[in-house]
Structures are given as structure tokens and as C-alpha cells.
């Protein structure tokens, strides 16, 4: 037989009190403010005042002048997509100038059809201050980028024509119309490590064009990696004296004459 189980009036009172206290604090909790994302799109254009990055055929260009550093653009887009309007700093117009929003020289950012101002104080900090166009609220958000970089065309240039993991390279074959030379890693070391570093991180001087410059001699450097992949670097000297390089024969960049002479020295 089951025995009837009864709670004493004191226990019932305690349970009731706990339920009441729990409900009270639940109702008194701070309201959950929804995170409002500023940008909810995949942009095809990003402008800083009058200078624009534009996406064409899956590649980002700066002012239709040269292909931008794609990694830098992707990092910028990631920062833009994480902007949220939840941390209000000020809605007092008298403080706008000291917070870096200059009425006579505003730094305007336009992402698609979204326009906002970026504080000129946004340099090397862990956050940025933004103000929506035609609104009087300043928000603190994640770091978007240094104003001096975003507005500088040099910043958007490719840092390297090649950007290869030098430690994974195990062989290079260099050739021109006359001869071919093979260079191999020996006992995990290269005969000339500086040469490998140069071919792994070849710096451009400037973007030339998407058309290969007319040249008398073109050098091919076939670079082999430990995973059996390979990549080819092309360099040459145009008929008008331009030294150029390309990793994909899609974009051609001018290079320093000394880098050209160093790379081609193994074929002399």
C-alpha cells in the first residue's frame, strides 16, 4: 500500500516564497537588446570619400586602376560585416568633433547603399567610432581599419607578387629560350637561402597591365612544393626596358632591376 505524502505548511510556504522571488528577479532582469548589424549584404563596392574598391569578376580593384590586395579587402569586409549598433557612445553634437568627426573634413564610408562616417581617430586602436549619415548617434564598434590606410592607394597594392611557403619548396627549375637549370634543396637546406626568400616573396613596384609586355626574352621559374603542387613565376624585360613579373600571366607587375638580375643569375 502506498502511503499518502503530505507537505507541511512551512515547506509549502518556502516553495511559494522561492517561486515568487525567482519570478520577481526574472521580471526585473535587464531587457535583452537585440544586436543590430549595420551591414547585411555581400558588398560589390566600398568607397572611402571619393576612392572606391569595386568587385569585378570575383576580383577587387582599386579605382579601376589596379587589382587590390585581396586578403586586405577580405579582412576589411569581415570587419564591416561585424559592425553592430549596440554600444552608443554619444548623441551630443557638441562632442562630435573631439570624438574625431570633423564637419569640414568628414571621412565618409559607403558600402553599397549604406553610408556612415568613420572617426579620424580610428588609427591603431582596438575599436572604431562610427556615425550614421544624417543621424546624431555615435557608436563604438569593432576596429574597421586605420583611416590613414583606408584612404591610401599604396596600402591597397599587392605586397607581394609571389607569397609562397618557402619552407615547403623542394625544387625550382628555371628556363629561358636557351637553357634550363634545376636547383634542389640539399639536406633540408638551400645553397642560397636569400635566393629562395626572394622568389618566395617577390615584391612589385607597380601594376603594369593585364597584357604581357612585349619582350624579347621571358624566364619561367617552375616552383615545386613538398605536396607535389607547383606554381610558375614568369619574369621578363620588355623592349622598352621594363622589368616585369607575373605569377599567373593574368596580372603583370614591374619589379626592381636588382631582383630581376638576382633571379636570372642562375641562367647566366
Radius of gyration: 30 Å
The strands making up the biggest β-sheet line up spatially as 4-3-2-1-6-7-8-9-5
The number of domains is: 2
Q: Based on Cα principal axes, name the global outline.
A: elongated
Note the total helix count: 5
Straight-line N-to-C gap? 105 Å
Helical fraction equals 10-25%
**How many DSSP-defined strands?**
16
Q: What is the H-and-E element order?
A: HEEEEHEEEEEHEEHEEEEEH
Which percent band covers the strand fraction?
Answer: 25-35%
**Average pLDDT level:** 86
Main sheet makeup: 9 strands, antiparallel
Counting helices, strands and paired strands, the structural category is alpha+beta
Low-confidence stretches: 29-35
Molecular structure report:
It is built from five helices and 16 strands. The protein is an alpha+beta fold and 268 residues long. It has two domains: 112 residues, no CATH class; 102 residues, 2-Layer Sandwich (Dna Ligase, domain 1). The strands form two sheets. A nine-stranded antiparallel β-sheet has the order 4-3-2-1-6-7-8-9-5, with helices on one face. A hairpin with a 3-residue loop joins strand 3 and strand 4. The protein is elongated, with a radius of gyration of 30 Å. It starts with 8 loop residues before the first helix and ends with a helix.
Amino acid at each position: 500500500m502506498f502511503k499518502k505524502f503530505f507537505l507541511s505548511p512551512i515547506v509549502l510556504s518556502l516553495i511559494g516564497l522561492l517561486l515568487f522571488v525567482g519570478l520577481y528577479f526574472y521580471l526585473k532582469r535587464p531587457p535583452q537588446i537585440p544586436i543590430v548589424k549595420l551591414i547585411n549584404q555581400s558588398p560589390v563596392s566600398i568607397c572611402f570619400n571619393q576612392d572606391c574598391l569595386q568587385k569585378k569578376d570575383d576580383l577587387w580593384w582599386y579605382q579601376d586602376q589596379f587589382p587590390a590586395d585581396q586578403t586586405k579587402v577580405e579582412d576589411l569586409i569581415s570587419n564591416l560585416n561585424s559592425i553592430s549598433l549596440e554600444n552608443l557612445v554619444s548623441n551630443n553634437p557638441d562632442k562630435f568633433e573631439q570624438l574625431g568627426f570633423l564637419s569640414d573634413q568628414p571621412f565618409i564610408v559607403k558600402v553599397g547603399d549604406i553610408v556612415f562616417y568613420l572617426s579620424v581617430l580610428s588609427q591603431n586602436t582596438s575599436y572604431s567610432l562610427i556615425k550614421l549619415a544624417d543621424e546624431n548617434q555615435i557608436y563604438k564598434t569593432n576596429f574597421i581599419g586605420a583611416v590613414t590606410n583606408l584612404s591610401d592607394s599604396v596600402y591597397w597594392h599587392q605586397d607581394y607578387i609571389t607569397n609562397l611557403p618557402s619552407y615547403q619548396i623542394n625544387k625550382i627549375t628555371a628556363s629561358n629560350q636557351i637553357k634550363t637549370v634545376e636547383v634542389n634543396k640539399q639536406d633540408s637546406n638551400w645553397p642560397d637561402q636569400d635566393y629562395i626568400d626572394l622568389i618566395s616573396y617577390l615584391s612589385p613596384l607597380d601594376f603594369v597591365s593585364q597584357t604581357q609586355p612585349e619582350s624579347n626574352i621571358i624566364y619561367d621559374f617552375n616552383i615545386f612544393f613538398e605536396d607535389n603542387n607547383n606554381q610558375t613565376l614568369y619574369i621578363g624585360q620588355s623592349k622598352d626596358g621594363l622589368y616585369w613579373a607575373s605569377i599567373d600571366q593574368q596580372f603583370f607587375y614591374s619589379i626592381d632591376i636588382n631582383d630581376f638580375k638576382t633571379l636570372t643569375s642562375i641562367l647566366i
